[in-house]
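Retro notes
What went well: the complex prediction finally ran end to end.
Inputs used:
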Amino acid sequence: MGSPQPWHFYLWTIPWIILPWTPLVILGAVEMYRRRLFSQPIGRFLICWFVPGVLVMSLSAWKHFHYVIPMLPGLCVPATLGMLSWIKYVNEQAKPRNLVVAVIFAIACVAGMVFTHHRWPDASDTMVLTIAVLLIGGLLVLYQAHRRSTIGQLASIFATAWSVAVCADYFVLPHFDGYRPSAELAQRANAEANRMKRSI
Amino acid sequence: MIGLDEAHAAYYLRFPMKRLDDGKIPDNVHDLIGLAPQSLIESLKQSGTVDVITTSQRGGRSEHDADQLVLLRWKHL
């Protein structure tokens, strides 16, 4: 499954894999550095989880983005810290620009729907549905931010992430998954091989 | 497995299998059941008769018709 890749393959692959949480992981890592948490047991534990594995994987000639997934849970703690820091920052703003952000977000989502409709016409229905779920969830998050409800924001963020992931997994991925037809063909080959064996 | 390299189908085959990554059938083989991409059928027909048993459904949207997998029986001329 893997293929020869340069040593820096995972440096740019990991930020892509962990989207949309990448900015929160960076924010959380900065926050951990500011609080000197990397010299505490929890910080050292997370470094031991993430860094050696990525280094070993980077030294390997054969690389694939699947291979690095066991190292990614180590990024959950900085992502959580980053999310809480961001919510706290937004809640403390005297005049948060939630309406402006909501309008920009809605325009971006609609642009995404139009783009996917033209780029992947066969799969556009399911992709537009998934983006619509993201749009509704994102607006709910911003509404909770407008109410300055930390619990509401956390609940709507995770509900949106879960809903979008389910839509992508069940509706969108089958359009791009090349494995299922291969597996079905192999099963037909197995049946054919058994039939030939019986006839010999 | 003819000209397929690391094809995913190999994980599901339940009988002894031989990989022919270069897409060429050895001279000592006179009859075989194989999986191959659609694009290889014409070159296989130059050395033998090809009966297509079944064809896989289209896979991902990025897949071309020539990449479609075919289960075939090849017999030397």
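What we learned: The first helix of chain B runs from residue 41 to 45.
What to try next: split runs per interface for comparison.
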